[in-house]
Amino acid sequence: MAKMHGAVVVDVERCKGCNLCVAACPQKVLELTPKTVNTKGYHYSQPVKEELCIGCASCAIVCPDGCITVYRKKEE
Amino acid sequence: MTREEIIKTGDVVYRKPELLNDTPMHYCPGCPHGVVHKLVAEVIDEMGMRDKTIAVSPVGCSVFAYRYIDVDWEEAAHGRAPALASAIKRLWPDRLVFTYQGDGDLACIGTAETIHALNRSENITIIFINNAIYGMTGGQMAPTTLLGQKTVTCPYGREVALHGYPLKIADIAAILPGTCYVTRQTVDTVPAIRKAKAAIRKAFDYSMQGKGSNLVEIVSTCNSGWKLSPEKSFEWMRENMVPFYPLGDLKDTGKE
Amino acid sequence: MAEKEVSLIKGNEAIALAAIRCGCDGYFGYPITPQSEVLETLAAQKPWETTGMVVLQAESELASINMVYGGAGTGKRVMTSSSSPGISLMQEGMSYLAGAELPCVVFNCMRGGPGLGTIQPSQADYFQTCKGGGHGDYRLITLAPSSVQEMADFVDLAFELAFKYRNPAMILADGVIGQMMEKVVLPDFKPRRTEEQIIKECPWAATGRMGRKNPNVITSLELQSEVMEQNNLRIQEKYKKCEENEVRYEEYKCEDADYMIVAFGSAARIAKKTIALAREQGIKVGLLRPITLWPFPTKEIAKLAKNKKGILVLEFNAGQMIEDVRLAVECKLPVEHYGRLGGIVPDPDEVLDALKKMIK
Question: What are the sequence ranges of the domains in chain B?
């Protein structure tokens, strides 16, 4: 089976740091920024192990604020 | 394969529905309202009803729903959304008309409007967000608050002698001859969200097919009111809310 | 021109029949004496089969007025009717309608209060109608018919004014006008506007976007005080225009009169009889009948009062409109009140006695 590669793009300014995407990710790709915050003062979600992302979109589906766009590409 | 490559050449698997505009939502972090808003926006666009939808927002946390989903809206007085929707649908029968209400709005001050609109078999859908608390006003007891649950107006826990019993609106709706489809869903996991979306789609389809009134209850959370993190709130919901408000279809006469 | 057909009908029936004829899109109501004939007549007429007008019996007055809000928000011509206690229940909705700047017509066939009161006629809702009723700074354009003919004529007029100013309009009648039968020429049939016409005439309405770039939102909510103040100022500006342009009144035998009666609705009819009796006895009395209770004919009363010796305000209440009459004449001449309460309609003789008492 061809391997799927995913990429997650977080709209940092929309993110409220609720952590639901972090919890929903089966590959543990995402984490909240430990130190930096966005202009609203939230620690925001960022992909930290992006090589593990399979593009399943779980993070984006559970995101209440529609911050996440997910891309996927099949390995040729 | 690099991240840039995937973004540039890959397929978009998920992005915020177009009908949900870029206005940042006022909801607390992790509030399920946002998820349900996304589902509603997706369903309206999938039905091609963007231009023919008239939605009604309540008083409560979702009072500003009209800021986020780019369809025409009317904002109702507290509890009266089903009365507005009844009139709108009768006057514009080919429009998709739905209300979006919380438990304080729908199950308390607006119980009469809810029950009567449903039982008149108005061809509308009521989307009912049940988080067992008044969120907007600061976490007061709602008619749906569980026995033993603590809120700022039942700080020692809801008890029957003082506050009576929690109200199961969907169960009442299901026994009304006027309702077509009554279902109880939640949005805590990916599969649950997919099911909730299918339920909203079914309800909207039935209302456009003139099959009667539809109630989609979303068992939800209130992180701020419950004083729990979003994840812990979902855990509490699964442990306490779902046993009392069991998930699934309570009635579906539309498929017959 | 063909001769107009004359019907003998009740005031409440006239409201219903006029609504069907003036292109009304929807009526939402709840039974209450003494106005139930409005809903009953509409139900019997079945206008949904002819003009396409929606008629719905709601579960309460709260639901009725909010159905009206819903329909008005879509640009449709919608109305409701009730009587005093039911109108009290509708006050929240009236405030929301005025706040969201929605046009609609509300008919109040007044009965005696307070509380459940009586089912007999009264004019005790003047304060409620003209001085607010609901919360916030708003006004109701208020028409006070004094005949069944005016009941029929004012439905269309109320809709015209409501749409012109995007504000609720009230037809304020008492139980006498609602229940009595008179000869009426009903207004000509006017078709309901098409969907396209509504979308064109009401670009603000929530009709579904139908290709419009931005969504329309009907709401009275604005949390930013600066913006909310601007919203209020805009509404007040509108009310000022309404006060300048929409005052309506009837002047009757005022020219040579030494005294003036100010009365509205069926009280004005009694006043006319009193005037006839008084003039037989050599007392020159005239009548000013405000047709619009808001905007109130303040300037007109002040002008007419200049050469008068006194004003008697006749109302079926404990003295409500008298406050506006006193303000109008700025206490430059005596202004007395005569009224009966609890659903009692005064007879012309007792009004004459009150007039004589004032003169003495």
Answer: 27-252
